[in-house]
Amino acid sequence: MAQAGRRWQRSLFPWLLQFGFTQCKSDPCVFTMTRTISGVDHRLVLGCYVDDLFTLYSHEGAGSLYALTKRWNVEDEGPVSDLLNVDITTHADCVELKQEKYIAHL
């Protein structure tokens, strides 16, 4: 089904907005949400590529994903190491992105 991802996005995007996410103006497939827990802001960033979701969140922000998993049959495949030819390394205080695979592909 060539259009399956697009149909899913047409259902997902309005739901995310209704749930409280904000759609990024520079990339309409990226959504953010900030929740304040015990006076500390926790941000959740969600990206959608065709029918795949990519999320970045603090430990406390993970609870916001529960509603998403209740609504759709999504599966957490664990920490991501690469996405669209970008290597991703998570450190204690930052996330490192490298485009060596992309550059080599050129």
Give a written overview of the molecule.
The chain is an alpha+beta fold and 106 residues long. 27% of the residues lie in helices and 35% in strands. The strands form two sheets. Strands 1-2-3-4 form a four-stranded antiparallel β-sheet, covered by helices on one side. The protein has a three-stranded antiparallel β-sheet with strand order 5-6-7. It is globular and about 40 Å long. The model has no long low-confidence stretch (mean pLDDT 82).
SSE topology sketch:
Blueprint (H helix, E strand, L loop, with lengths): L3 H16 L2 E2 L6 E8 L2 E10 L2 E6 L7 H7 L10 E2 L2 E5 L4 E4 L1 H6 L1
Antiparallel strand pairs: 1-2, 2-3, 3-4, 5-6, 6-7
Strand order of the largest sheet: 1-2-3-4
- Total number of helices: 3
Estimate the helix proportion, in percent: 25-40%
Q: What is the H/E order?
A: HEEEEHEEEH
Looking at the chains present, what oligomeric state does this protein adopt? single chain
Number of DSSP-assigned strands: 7
* Low-confidence residue ranges: none
Radius of gyration: 15 Å
Structural class: alpha+beta
What is the CA–CA distance across the termini? 29 Å
Q: Residue-averaged pLDDT, rounded?
A: 82
Overall, the morphology is globular
Report the β-strand fraction as a percent range.
Answer: 25-35%
Main sheet attributes: strand count, strand direction, barrel closure: 4 strands, antiparallel
